[in-house]
Design brief:
The structure is a single chain. With 692 residues, the chain is α+β, with helices and mostly antiparallel strands. It is 36% helix and 20% strand. Strands 6, 7, 8, 9, 10, 11, 12, 13, 14 and 15 form a 10-stranded antiparallel sheet that branches. A 5-stranded antiparallel sheet has the order 1-2-3-4-5. A 3-stranded antiparallel sheet has the order 16-17-18, with no helix packed on it. Helix 6 runs antiparallel to helix 7. The longest helix is centred in the first third of the chain and has 31 residues.
Length: 692
Amino acid sequence: MSKQKSLDAIRKMKLENDTSAGNLVDLLPIEVQKRDFDLSFLDNLSEARPRLLLQSADLAEFQAKVKADPAFCMYNDFIKNSTEKFFDTAPFEEPQAYPEETVGKASLWRPYWRQMYVDCQMALNATRNLSIAGIVSEDDDLIAKAKAWTLKLATYDPEGVTSRGYNDEAAFRVVAAMAWGYDWLNAHFSDEERETVKDALIVRLDEIMHHLKVTVDLLNNPLNSHGVRSISSAIIPTCIALYHDHPKAGEYIAYALEYYAVHYPPWGGEDGGWAEGPDYWNTQTAFLGEAFDLLKAYCGVDMFNKTFYENTGDFPLYCMPVHSKRASFCDQSSIGDFPGLKLAYNIKHYAGVNQKPEYVWYYNQLKGRDTEAHTKFYNFGWWDFGYDDLRFNILWDAPEEQAPSNEPLLKVFPITGWAAFHNKMCERDEHIHMVYKCSPFGSISHSHGDQNAFTLHAFGETLASITGYYGGFGVDMHTKWRRHTFSKNLPLFGGKGQYGENKNTKFEGHQDRYCIEAGGNITDYDTESDVKFVEGDATSSYKFFTPEIESYKRKIWFVKGKVFVMQDKASFTEEKDLTWLMHTTFATETADKSFVIRGENANLSVQFINASADNILSVKNVEGFGEVDPYEFKDLEVHRHVETEFKAAKEHNVVTLLVPNKNNGESVDVSHNIVGNTLELTVDGEVVSIEL
């Protein structure tokens, strides 16, 4: 394969991925809250610089405060942690294309793709931070270094490997870096240098906007995640920097505001949930939050004026719990780790916007623990926490910390189909929680075939978990394991699961609409009673591969903040066997009608307690990741799951009792009796009745 052919091959694959979620607007399961937007402010924007974050009119006062107190707005930490490392770093040469031999397989070229955008992130950090430091400190040496980075980036080929069409992650970072340099250093460029940077910015900006307006048509197809992120990460900062210097900058800002006011968020409703899961909430929120901050600082507009933004900090608070690993859903680059530090910064941002003290508690918990955040690839290729601190402290104030409720609770996001049970949420070694999902978005984009799935965490360990690893979108672990129902805590019917295919799985006849049509819904819940419950209907999720299905619902009760009862009811037009799956990273012990997951500090007893137990054919432990290429998990732990096989029937009604306990110390005392449709449960001497 020639170099040009390999370049074209990557561009073709990138284009296929970029347009994969298009033409779905008529299927969107939520109605986006719309806001009017007034563009009259565009006629009165200042021509002075800087204008990205800190305004020219405020610069002298900021310089004086920093001089008097270097810790003002944590400026000293910004210099020490985020800027000094670039003092003696020469601007990077333009990255090289991925090796030709890697182009045909995602797991081979992904590492080169990732290294490229990491390098471009470092270039962004260097350019932005040195520019700010040089101007604020009035340091000619730092200004010269920042200029050198900006001018070097302007030499990168806008149609080459850092173009949007080849590596959009790299492209967004390169154009944003130049925007910061162009804005903050404008008066320090010669006329020729200024024109060089401006021309490079315009070419790259116009490429991104053409893709959004023509190829993706984002206003009519708002689900394109990377397209959405290009607005916040690239278009808004670049248009602010180029305003008055590029005739289309105002038009592009107007486009961005229309999208955010009328079409955003397509993945979340007024309850604040996010269908793509906490990791993609994290990336979307990170770039959106910065873009909204920059618009607030320069344009004086408040884009946080939707109910979604008032509530969305609750989503990570409850559905990406502080104390857990592998306990949430959808694509997660941080899978296997505690919630990442950037999640803490994002929720703190909403603490500033909405003055919610529980969010500060979440931030402090993660901040105090994640002391090695800079070593993780999903941080150093993406975030600069010193800059984040500076930006927040210039624009916002956070309230004093307040811990969330420690009592048994159920938090539901009914619009996007997520829910979470918690007890003793503030105590790591006592915390019990279950995260549950039954989403009307189905398996579209970064979501998976996991409607009615759950994870269960207790006493410091996620016992019923998400298994596998994250190697990137489109690799074997993603397309042959993580996206599919057989990797979830869910039933299979006749060996078949929900529709979890996409273009990367190469499923013949795939259409993206099938992913949304395979959605589910939370149909009932009770957050107020002593016994809290949630119920979801995932019938449509299984229809594609099991057209004989008539109904599949799962109902989960949380009793006394100690144990869970789960009921799976399914009916078919012909007999289907049922395989009940539970995944874990720990050891399992199986019996005839039950099994135990045994962690290092805690265990989970799983018992089938109604008449369905008489229909069990086998309970067995299975290791491995199916057909995933072993290369992708070489030297990594192989996970396991329990498969409980039930006889074929037209109707299944499986009731399961899930009891978590510590390995050492007193165990919860549980007994049960079922009479008709009533389950009488005795938990540590207290009797509870549940209507099944």
